[in-house]
């Protein structure tokens, strides 16, 4: 299995296809397997697709230490160095989009185009969210992870009409859950992230995407509001809203997601 030996840990990664590098960065405490169903087959046809398990997830090392999105961006930059990949297309989903923002800001030569999927620049509350704490205590970690994925990931209509697809995604997403400590360290890093004052300095073409069902939230700020801020603040950013979609439209609506990405990549 391929591992990149970084300064302080081993990072698991996979490379599929040949062509311009295309890095996928997953959401909070999520491994890279979620991209293998629809995005890897599509984009590896003409790109060098790179997926990986961020520190604390999947098959990568899980150090017991404070995590920050800056640290995770440093990891991603080191992985690109390890692979000799410059001027990559970077797709960051949710917290992965926060990591992707810092990759573009702090390592501008490594990023050619940026896709921020259901992401944001900051939260209004720091620390572990209260609702998360309560649900973890009441439900336990595994049930919380499942219920949370369903609640934020899919519309009620999609869950009712496509239960097999939902279960297919959950089987992938919830496989090899990180230790609870690592999950919480990722959540703390996400809540502490703040690039709101630096968005104007992102100079690469940027696509912002979000599902229209992401306006509802139990968090301090919705993905819809966060995406709107990104699209209005990043110079010349393009916003695409997927109808009837929750957080996991890249899985629930792969054709629409991949088409939007393709159209963005062909733009000058």
Nutshell version of this structure?
This protein has 268 residues and is of the alpha/beta class.
- How many individual β-strands? 8
Q: Domains counted in the coordinates: how many?
A: 1
Mean pLDDT: 95
For the record, the CATH architecture stands as 3-Layer(aba) Sandwich
- Along the chain, the helix and strand elements come as EEEHEHEHEHHHHHEHEHH
Biggest sheet overview = 8 strands, mixed
CATH topology-level name: Rossmann fold
| Share in helix | 40-55%
* Uncertain stretches: none
Keywords:
268 residues; Rossmann fold; globular; alpha/beta
Task: Report on this structure.
The protein has 268 residues and is an alpha/beta fold. It has a single domain, classed as 3-Layer(aba) Sandwich (Rossmann fold). The protein is 42% helix and 16% strand. The protein has eleven helices and eight strands. It has helices at 39-43, 69-82, 95-106, 130-139, 141-153, 156-161, 163-173, 180-192, 223-233, 249-252, 254-266; strands at residues 3-5, 10-16, 21-25, 48-52, 88-93, 111-117, 206-211, 238-242. An eight-stranded mixed β-sheet has the order 1-2-4-3-5-6-7-8, sandwiched between helices. Strand 1 and strand 2 (10-16) form a beta hairpin. Helix 2 (69-82) crosses helix 3 and helix 4 (130-139) crosses helix 5. It is globular. It starts with a strand and ends with a helix.
